[in-house]
Amino acid sequence: MSVYDYEVKTIRGESKRLTDYEGHVMLIVNTATKCGFAPQFKGLEELHRSYKDKGLAVLGFPSNQFANQEPGDNDEIAQACELNHGVTFPLFGKIDVNGANADPLFQHLTQEAPGILGSKSIKWNFTKFLVDRDGRVVKRFGPKDTPASIEPHVRKLLEY
């Protein structure tokens, strides 16, 4: 299976198949607007603006599973991301990324790119998954990995 086999809900509640991103490099991130790592929204937006025309898709998936740092509903999240962080990259509906109710996409991502010591669970907000143009998960980055530190990996995958 690849990420293209999944369907997700946009932040506005519409169904979206990830096949819409076929041929793109994707950076899939679990986000939270009240997290100490929320300043990374700026760096993610910079990656989005710099590379969207070259084939990068930054995709944000809000989650409230870590210290209640995303308590709002989808409308509140969208507004906070836009007004407070200038986000224009695609945001999706709030989901669980761990546990019995984890979104199937995140089950796939964590299976394909385990964390430290082979851990499948996501430890905190702003865990990032880099996906190549063929829909394969190629690397997992932790919350402390900044978008700027990930940029060389993105550039490499964008090369033809």
Can you give me a brief rundown of this structure?
28% of the residues lie in helices and 18% in strands. It has 160 residues and is an alpha+beta fold.
Written description of the protein model:
This protein is an alpha+beta fold and 160 residues long. The chain has a single domain (3-158), classed as Glutaredoxin (3-Layer(aba) Sandwich), CATH 3.40.30.10. It is 28% helix and 18% strand. It contains four helices and six strands, in the order E-E-E-H-E-H-H-E-E-H. The protein has helices spanning 40-51, 74-85, 104-112, 147-158, and strands at 7-9, 15-17, 25-31, 56-62, 128-131, 137-141. The strands form two sheets. It has a four-stranded mixed beta sheet, with helices on both faces. It has a two-stranded antiparallel sheet with strand order 1-2. Strand 3, helix 1 and strand 4 form a beta-alpha-beta unit. The two termini are 23 Å apart. The mean pLDDT is 95. One of its GO terms (molecular function) is peroxidase activity.
Q: What would the keywords be for this entry?
A:
single chain, 160 residues, Glutaredoxin, four-stranded mixed β-sheet, two-stranded antiparallel sheet, 4 helices, 18% strand, peroxidase activity, Glutathione peroxidase, GPX_CS, Glutathione_peroxidase
